[in-house]
Fold this sequence. Notes:
Elements: H1 7-21, E1 27-31, H2 34-47, E2 53-55, E3 67-71, H3 72-79, E4 97-101, H4 105-117, E5 121-125, H5 135-140, H6 154-159, E6 166-170, H7 174-178, E7 180-181, H8 187-195, E8 207-208, E9 217-219, H9 220-233, E10 236-237, E11 242-243, E12 245-249, H10 253-266, E13 275-278, H11 285-293, E14 301-304, E15 317-322, H12 329-336, E16 356-360, H13 364-369, H14 383-399, H15 406-424, H16 431-434, H17 437-443, H18 451-456, H19 459-469, H20 483-500, H21 507-521, H22 527-530, H23 533-540, H24 550-560, E17 575-577, E18 587-589, H25 592-612, H26 618-624, H27 631-643, H28 649-659, H29 662-670, H30 674-688, H31 692-708, H32 729-732, H33 737-748, H34 754-757
Helix pairs in contact: 1-2, 9-10, 14-15, 14-20, 20-21, 20-24, 21-23, 28-29, 30-31, 30-33
InterPro entries: EcoEI_R_C_dom, Helicase/UvrB_N, Helicase_ATP-bd, Helicase_C-like, Helicase_Restrict-Modif_Enz, P-loop_NTPase
GO biological process, one term: DNA modification
GO molecular function: ATP binding; DNA binding; hydrolase activity
Amino acid sequence: MATGTGKTRTVIGLVETLLKAGWVRRVLFLADRDALVRQAVRAFGKNLPDVPAMDLREADKAEKARIYVSTYPKIMNEIDGFKEDGTRRFGPGFFDLVIIDEAHRSVYQKYRNIFRWFDSLLVGLTATPKDEVDRNTYSLFGLEQGIPTDFYPLARAIEDEWLVPPRVIDVPLKFPRQGMHYGQLSDEEKDQWDALDWGEGVEPPDEVDGAALNDWLFNIDTVDKALKFLMEKGHRVEGGDRIAKTIIFAKNQRHARYIVERFDHSYPHLAGKAARVIISSDDRAQTTLDEFSDAAKLPDIAVTVDMLDTGVDVPEVANLVFFKRVFTSSKFWQMIGRGTRLRPDLYGPGQDKEDFFVFDLLGNAEWFNQNLPRAEGRVATSLHARLFATRVDLLCTISLLEEADEELTGLHDDVAARLHKTVAGMNLDNFLVRDHRSWVETYAIREAWSREKIGAADPQDLSDLIENLGELPTADRGDGTDEKSKRFDLMMLTLQLGTLRLDLDVTRVRENVRAIASALLENLDVSDIAAQAALLDDMAGEEWWQDITAPMLEIARLRVRGLVGLITKSQQKIVYTDLVEEIGEVREVELTAAAKGVNAKRFRQKAQAYLARHLNNLSLQKLRRNKPLTQQDLDELGHMLVDAQIGTESDLLAAAEKAHGLGRFIRSLVGLEREAVEEAFATFLQDTGATRAQQDFVRLVIDHLTDNGELDPNLLWEDPFNRDDPSGVSGIFSDPVPLVEVIRRFNAGADLPPSVTA
C-alpha cells in the first residue's frame, strides 16, 4: 500500500476482525524503529481502545496485553528469555498472528528466524512498489514474485482521491550536479579559489566533484539560491504570509546545520524559529518534531537527515526539497510519501490541499523514471561469519598439506582451538541455535577439529559446516568486540591462506595491511604503537613481504590487532566558498509511478468542469433525468470530451472501465436531476406507507443520487446511512429489498437498455 493510504489502520481492522472471530488471541506487531513502535501503540489504542496493546519494553504490562508491539532486535532478545517457572516467555505458540511492518528485503535477511520460530499467521505490510519487493520476501509468504496478496499503488490512491499527487519541479543547480571546475571560474573567483585554505600542504585542486558539494565543500550561493527558490515558489499558507510546512532532505548533519545557518542569515526576521534541524543526534529532536507537526506552531521548515524519511504523518506538508541524491527506490517513495496526505482547508475555508511540490535539486525524479533493472538482493554475510569461514578454510588447507613443520602445526592447533571455543559457546537453548543442534553438538567436541578429521572431510561437508554454524551467536569472545580489530584479523587470515594457496590473489589485501602499518607509524606518540615500531616499519615496507609465512603473519596479527583502533583518522578540511551558483532550465517532471493516478484525477476534474457548462445538451439531459439512452447518445457524449481536448480516447476508455460504463462515468460527474429522483421515490414511499424515519432515510438516498448519479447499495449500511440506526438500512426497513431495487433501477439507467445492447 502506498505511503499514506493507512497500512496500520487497515491491519488494525484485520486484527479486530480476527479477534472477534476467535481466530487469534495474541498479536505481535513488529516495526524497525522505536518511534514507529510508539506510533503503532498509539494507533492500536485509538482504534481498538478495549484491546490492551503494549510496547514490549514495558514489561510490567505484559500479563494484561493482547497486542504486543516491538522492534525486531527486542523480540529476538526476548525469545530467549525465561519466566521464573523455567518456561519460555515467548514460546512458538505464544502469538497467533505476527504482523511485519515494512516487510522488505532487509527484514527477511536479518530477522527471518523470528518468523520461523512462531507458529502463527503472518501478515506483511510494505509501501515498497510490488515489483521491487525481493524474491525472498515473497517466498516467506508463499507467494509468486511480483504478485502480493493485495496491493494499492500510489497511482490508484491518487485517482481515488485518498492521496494528493506530487508536482515535481526539476531545479538543476550547477555545482552539485556538475561539480566545480577551476577553468570555468571568473578571474575574481579564481583568486578566491587560490586563496582558500584547502588543508595543510594541499594545493588548490583543478576541479571538485559534485559529490563533494555539501559533504566537505559548502558553497554559500548554492544553499542561498535553493532557499530563495523554495521561499518564492513553494506553496504558502495564511494568505501567502507563511511558507507551508516543508521538509528539506539534507545530505548529512553538517549540511543540515549549514542550511539552517544560511536561512537564518537570509531571513533574519525568522531566524531561530521558522527553520530548524531535526536529526537523531539532537536531544531536542522529538520535541522539535512535535512542534513541526503542529500546524499552528513553528518551525515551518524541518531540515533533516533520514529521520523524517518514514513514519512521520504531517498532512500540512506541502513542500519537499530533495537536496541530496537518493539511490534506493523504497526510500525515495517513502520520502515522497511525506507530502501525499490529504489536508482539507489548508489554504483557507474550502481551499483544500490538492497537490504538493517536490523541488528536486539533484535529478532524483529522472533517475527513478528510468525504471532501471533492480539487482536481486543477497543476504549480507556478517564479519563474524566471514572470520569463521576463513578459519575453517585455513584449517582445511593446513590439514591437506603433505608436510607441515612445527610452526604450521602450531598454527593449525591454534586455529582449531579458536573454532572449537566458538562452537562450544553456542547455547542450544537459543532459538537461533536450536535448528542446528546436531551440527553444534558434533563440533563442540575438540576432536572434531583434528587434522585427521578436517583433512578427510568432504568439501561439501565443510561448506555445510560453514553455512550451518557461521552465523550462529556464541558466548565466546576470543576475538574481542572491537570491529576494527576483527576486520584486521580477517585480512591477516586471508593473507595466511594466500601463502599456502597459489590460486589466491591477495595483492590488494596486502596493500591494505601495509597502509594500516603506515598509518600507525604516524602515531608513534602512543606508547603501545611505539612498542611495535620495528614490526610496523617492516610491514609498511616491501622486503618483509618476500617469502612471508603463515606463522609469521599470525605473530604480526596478534601483535598489531589491538593497535588498529588507535589510528587517528585524517580529517578532510572543510572548505567554504562563495562562488556564483547557476540554476539551469527549471521544468516540471512527471513521476511515472504516480502519473496514471494524476492523469485520471485531472481528466475527471476537467471533464466535470466542461460538462457543467453544457448541461443543456440533449444526451446529458436524458442521462440526468434517467431516461433511456441510445448508443448514439453515448457516442455523442464521448466525442464531446475528446473533441474538446478534455482527454484522450484512452483516458475516456480507462474512466469508463473503472466506472463500469461510459454512461455511469459521465453521470457520476453531472449527477441526477433532483426532481426526477424525487418523483421515482414518491411512488415508492406511497406504495410502502413509509414511516417518518423511513422518509428521512429515503431523503438521504435522494441526496446521494442527486449529487453522485448512482449509489452502491452496500453503502446503505455505512455512514451517513447508519447515523440514526447503527444497523443502517436494516434498522429502518424490516425488508430493505424493495428500496434496493429502486436504487438499482436508477443505477442501471445510465446503461444502454437490454434491447439496445442485444
